[in-house]
Design goal:
Oligomer: single chain
Structural class: alpha+beta
Strand order of the largest sheet: 3-2-1-4-5
Shape: elongated
Radius of gyration: 20 Å
Strand content: 25-35%
């Protein structure tokens, strides 16, 4: 196997993984639309940041509790798959919708009540799927170059 063929295979595999993850996330979002909901209480709402190589990304961190079947659950999951990194302004805008002590509607998995979300969304999925398409395109490019 040539170096170009190896790059084609690796890019193709990464592309398939990314596209598969994105599709799986979208299927999970669909499933949450059928989950029952219950009122919960917001315990924490803040914007956090992570810096890597001089780039700072911002994330909304929420914590809430809810009761299902007499059991109290604690969760920090707002959306499926975790939220995509945002600018400080975008994260603050999302966080401003949530105030500590407020009642929030929690959508929970009836088969596993500890599995819950506050929003029917997977904001990172489209970006990951797009990345997967790029990997697949590179795979075709390297594969075509290896064949010539």
């Amino acid at each position: 196997m040539t170096e170009h063929q190896l790059w084609a295979v690796l890019n193709g595999l990464m592309g398939l993984v990314c596209v598969g993850y994105g599709l799986f996330s979208q299927l999970q979002v669909r499933a949450t639309r059928r989950w029952p909901s219950v009122a919960g209480t917001l315990l924490a709402a803040r914007v956090t940041s992570r810096t890597w190589r001089r780039n700072t990304s911002y994330f909304v961190h929420l914590e809430y509790e809810y009761v299902v079947g007499g059991h109290t659950y604690l969760s920090a999951r707002r959306v499926i798959g975790g939220a995509a990194p945002q600018s400080a302004q975008a994260a603050e805008l999302v966080a401003s919708r949530y105030n500590v002590g407020d009642t929030v509607w929690v959508f929970y998995n009836p088969a596993r009540p500890g599995d819950a979300v506050l929003e029917h969304a997977a904001p990172a999925a489209p970006g990951i799927m797009l990345l997967g398409v790029a990997f697949l395109a590179f795979s075709l490019l390297f594969g075509f170059r290896a064949a010539t």
